[in-house]
Amino acid sequence: MPVTTIEWLNGKVRMIDQTKLPEELVYLDIEDVEVLAEGIKSLRVRGAPAIGIAGAFGLVLGIQNFEGNDKEAFLRELNRIADYLNATRPTAVNLSWALNRMKKVAQENATLGVEKIKERLLQEALKIWEEDREICRRIGKHGAKLIKNGSHVLTHCNTGALATADYGTALGVVFAANEEGKKVNVYADETRPLLQGARLNVWELMNEGIDVTLITDNTAAFVMQQEKVDCVIVGADRIAANGDTANKIGTYSVAVLAEKHGIPFYVAAPYSTIDFNIKKGADIPIEERAAEEVTEGFGKRTAPQNAKVYSPAFDITPHELISAIITEEGVIEPPFEINLKKSARNQNS
Ligand code: MRU
Known about the structure:
CATH architecture of the largest domain: 3-Layer(aba) Sandwich
Number of domains: 2
Bound molecules: 5-S-methyl-1-O-phosphono-5-thio-D-ribulose
Number of strands: 14
CATH topology of the largest domain: Rossmann fold
Number of helices: 11
């Protein structure tokens, strides 16, 4: 059952409300930038590449009702909306990457009239969306080379079609290996506190007919000790220039466990997730989420009223624990500080 996570349809953004999955498949038709921003904040749309696409479409929504031909006022409004959208979630760099790309298009077309600039902006947002579909397929193809027939892969969080325009990053690797005829078995961490693994990854894998076993996050150590895992593949929200990787909270624990058990740990992500302006993981901004997501997630109170909570949405996996980074250009091996730059140059040439 193919799903379209997010798309531009008849002047609106149509997207799946991921907070309703797996119980209900609900599509939202959004024509208002404030509603879209709330959707990003509350994870109705989530996953680094999908957030970038949502930001680009959101900017189009935000400026589409701008009236008049005062270009300076138009560009000021564009920057204001871009800043507003950018503030919704701070860790996934794909959001600011997409918004900056949109702002650049507006600057480059500043000699045109306002209506023409709006058209160019919509074209660019659609291009970002279309490119992501193609990039994910390429990540999948490169990553599939690392997967042997009969492999058991452990994943964390959701990294499939729901987290991207289509197909996914880490799950894209699993889908590609499966399409090549390899048998792949997945252990999906449930991913506390918002259960993206249980609700979304398991849903996507079952829809594709791929063998998946749901485990609680704290079962990962035991399945590795039992020699039931051949490799770990996760996605990323931001990769620093030295390869340190921000991804869903709990990823670092999985990486430490993988090292302890001699299991390869792969990160799969598009180039738009690499932030060369950030030298090391400690400099990546980490989003903190509301205490209620931990104390009464999904409507059931599981901690005393007023319990003190610390809930970072992401953690940093040091590059030393990463065996390779799978991108649309191929599999990049350590030393990442050198090899990420080298492959980025190849990409731009
Ligand atoms: O808080 P979320 O659900 O947006 O977090 C998502 C993740 O951490 C994913 O692993 C990451 O964005 C990669 S998605 C291809």
